[in-house]
Structure of Amidohydrolase family protein:
Amino acid sequence: MKTLANLRLIDPEEGTESIGWIRFSDHVEEIGKGEGPDGAEDCGGLCIAPGIIDIGVKICEPGERHKESYRTAGRAAAAGGVTTMVTRPDTTPVTDTPEMLEFAVRRAREAAPVHVLPMAALTKGREGREMTEIGFLQDAGAVAFTDTDNPIRDAKVLLRAMSYAKGLGALIISHPQEPVLSSGAAMTSGAFATKLGLPAVSPQAERLQLERDLTLVEMTGCRYHADQITTAVALPALARAKEAGLPVTAGTSIHHLTLNAFDVDDYRTFFKLKPPLRSEDDRLATVEALASGLIDIISSMHTPQDEESKRLPFEEAASGAVALETLLPAALRLVHSGHLTLPQLFRALALNPARLLGLPAGRLSPGAPADLIVFDPDAPFVLDRFKLHSKSKNTPFDTARMQGRVRRTFVSGEDVTP
């Protein structure tokens, strides 16, 4: 049993922030306001909040273990305040069978100090042609089904998968980018992309795919989550779907909330992402949608790439960035700029992901799992990518001035801070 006092209690469920104390074992036993009981550990006014639940983490075992392993990703997560990683199936080989899923569950249990929940592919090989055995995969532990950044082109295949998933109560997660228009794109279209001479895609590609997907959701009633909404033109379709009562939620990535297309100015491939970084107007619209609750979830979209994959001309370089350790300090930029309060931020980082996946976590209340983080939201530092715990160091925040340090991470009441 641990008792921590002199804390700023960040409660995303109640939307409050207060001074108080907390007692916990493997779950939260008691929370109080004001001074803590005798013998409590004084935390000097630091913040405590539910641990982050990060949907969309890529771990590269077994086939690309040189990029990231469960051990290194788990340490990076613990250092960044992520107490639950929800992992993607775009592995080598693809996580599309119960055997591959069982391997992931076993390796995570052996090597990662945080909770790991696997997602499975929606179609075999993520090829968009034949649906996976959703029922068997669900029984093996899959919490959601997605072809990640390889959207299903054939609407009939997706309709069939959605109908089947509806019968099982399964969650489908989709990447709303029209695949033909997006093919080969390295930037978002506009004058800046033209100036740099890079192949680009219109923001409308996101809207097109989202509207198609939402039409199929309307036909089937399937639970659906859009993993990355990053453009202003996609937001009206999302708003209409929610107003109509469809079982729809949406997320966005931390990079699209805090960076924009101008960051690509010197062709630094650490800024090459999928979808590509957007205009500042799109970024601000996405931040506003998050603040209003139209967008539900912030994720890291942690995508490790080795040096060889990134040390290429911008157009040829691999997409993606690591973000397990930078998720919280980058997200705190939205708090320091006045766009979000701390309870709003942790609603998107912890409470809403927990609700989406039906988890008891994400709350700061008695009975909830003791998956907790203690952090200093104002601690300044300059990020050094070589100090990250991830095997791959491809972060766009290298040498950036940031604020916010995780001091302690608890998983089921155990201190797992690296």
